[in-house]
Predict the structure.
Amino acid sequence: MTVNHSYHGVLIGLFVAMIGSFFVDLLAGPVSLQWFNIWAAIIENKASLDSLIFFEIRLPRAILALLVGATLGISGAALQGLLRNPLAESGIIGVSNCAALGAVLVFYFGFTQWAWFALPLAGLLGALVSVVLIFLLAGRSSSTVTLILAGIAINTIAGALMAMALNFAPNPYAMQEIVFWLLGSVANRSVSDVLIIVPFIVFGGLLILSCGRFLNALTLGEETASSLGFNVQVLRWRLVVGVVACVGAAVSVCGNIGFIGLVIPHLLRPLVRHDPQRLLSVSAMGGAVLLLLSDVAVQVLSSGGELKLGVITSLVGGPFFLYLILKNRNVWG
Amino acid sequence: MGLSAVLNDESLLLTGQQLTLSITGGATLLNAVSVTVNQGELVGLIGPNGAGKSTLLKLLSGVDSPSKGCVSLAISGSLEPISALSVRERAQKMSYLVQGAKAYWPIEVEKMIALGRLPFQKWWQQSSDYDQAKVVRAMQLTETLIYRNRIVTTLSGGEQALVMMARVLAGEPEVIFADEPVATLDPYHQLHVMELLRAHAKGERAAVVVLHDLSLAARFCDRIYLLNDGGLFCEGSPEVVLSQHNIARVYGVDSQITRVGQDLSVSPVARLNNR
Amino acid sequence: MRAIILIKWALVSLLSLTSCFAQASVPQRIVSLSLCTDQLLLMLAPRQHIVSLTRGAVDPDLSYMAAEANGFLLTGGNIEEVLPLNPDLIVGSAFASRDAVHFLRQLGYPVKLIGLPVSIAEIRDLLLAFGEWVGSPERAEQVVRKMDWQLANLNLQQDRVKKTALIYSSNGYTIGSGTLENVMLNAAGFHNLAVDMEVVGFEQITLERVVAAQPAFLFIENHIDNSDSLASQYVNHPVLDKMLLSKQREFIPSRLRACAGPMVVEAINYLYENHHDSKP
């Protein structure tokens, strides 16, 4: 079956959906805001209770949901294109957990004071370690079984190291907070959290987008891509650095929000006719939509905000993962 | 080595000199093999499994780099080492068809063939009308225009092989390097793919093909390189290379060689114990 | 097999005998398993009857009685540390070391647990009961009389309209009705907005609701100086500093509030001074 949508139509539709969910997320929260007051704050610079809640709490939350959702979507599409495997995703292959481990080490042991970029950089380095491990363990073959097994191993080790680090952290709350790092959340974040990750996400996103044609060429494998005029060694690293920069930064302030990078590229792939390059920007917007709507669900389901965002995305993504496994069972033997 | 040399032989298109590839650990996959390809030639690489055919093809096409030796391409009257070319320039002139080529995503045939135009587009460019015309021409040549909107992974093996050939032809390269393009095909599609390669290797263009079927090699190739154990065993016209003696020495089989019209037909008949 | 059962029986009867004996007279070897019972012991029991306290007892940030706690054996409250001390009374909190308490009771040791008082009257009852346990009821009555006198003489000028207040604590918890903290806020002349939000006991509330509540006084309680945790990010969120209509204050320090006792007077006074000082 061919789906006859034009690429630009899909782009525009998703963009509208993204902006729409962004505003719905801004509306969602325990306090109902008077929009007039916010408008007054923008126009007349007149601070009010509503504008305080809007600019200091809701806006950072919604921007983070948008940025992190876009990051997870685009990096899922990039990793799947690179490894030519629809099950490659930063959470499943252990990239997110390793990023969380890096962030935990910096966050709880007082290294955040060193530099404003210490936290996202630690996330980046953690993520980088995991990608190198994946290449060592699974090679660059597209064998799904090896990839998933390597992912399980890396996830387990990173999770255990994270628990150990939190156990030894000089802070009585640290151990309880493992839930945040494993499930992720965008609640109670401030403008400064947004500011420290923006450079990393923009840099990583641009690196990934610059590899679009390379991903198209990889449709025919690495050797063919090389013969089509792509420097595979260089471009592979460029893509990996792009992925770890944006995923590492996103995880370092929002924890490991799972499955978005798996679900979104899979759902959107037919809309761009399996074009790996076009899938990138489309997945970024789709990921943003899914995370924003998940955050709206969190706000609606729990007024206290104690429900973690990752619970919602995992509830959506977990069954979807099972479905993909069942669907591909025969292919993998 | 790095300097380009003025060509004396006008028809020379590509040379590989003393090509050697050793992998980390010490094993030598290919040992000092030299190859020349002239304009208008279809060159066959044959030899038993593990002889180094695919390795040689990857070195000649620039997909892999040799540990020692140099591959050079004739560019406007002089021989340039391909290591001095940018990967893009190289890709515009030489095209490589991997063994068992397949698409990893279920994309449309036309889109897959259009990937062959990637070396001609800058990173910000989309496919132009000119590119589109070349894609259509490649589909016409390979008689795959009827599949243009089909999903490539749903095609039969023979249809896929033709579509992969179309991808290579869409780039209009000077030299095509094809690794066992007919290994899994039925006789009809085997002949079709070989005819396409033969048709390409005309005028200023050439093709190098790895084959297992000795009769096909004898029938279509102008010259044959017989490899054995990482080295060159002998080289020459099909009549010279495909002798009962050579086949017995290299493949370890007794064979029956008959002449059918202008062509040789080679059929292995028995394994020899003294290989 | 028979022999083992016999020994067991003998052991159990011996233990119950000693415990009967111990209960009949004033306990001579008292072991404390919690920070609060440490403080009550130091206040009420004769020093020579106290065998061990917990490690927090000497920390002036945590314990009101830190100065008096010097010179005692300190434990982590583990069974293995407690048993060799051969106690004849073990006191602890009903909310801590449940497993240890259960085990100690099975072995026949007399264990007395204190609850969590949520009113001045309950503090009074607790002090008197504790006095009975450790064999100094007169001392307990004395402490209660002094506390009541101090409460009566706090001399708080109550405004006609109470100032609104809200407590915000690590991990986003606030404290509502049915708590001693609420009683103390009221006694110090505040109206706790968490009660209006129908918060009972300890509950998590979002930053948004804190901002929207606009308390005149926002009492911040950060249990730890170390701010490197997500728990502290609630109380360190920049929006709290931008609530122009709210004065931010630190909530009652731990030494006054880790245990419900006569220090409640000082705690109320601490809160009261917060809305009479002129700090912005």
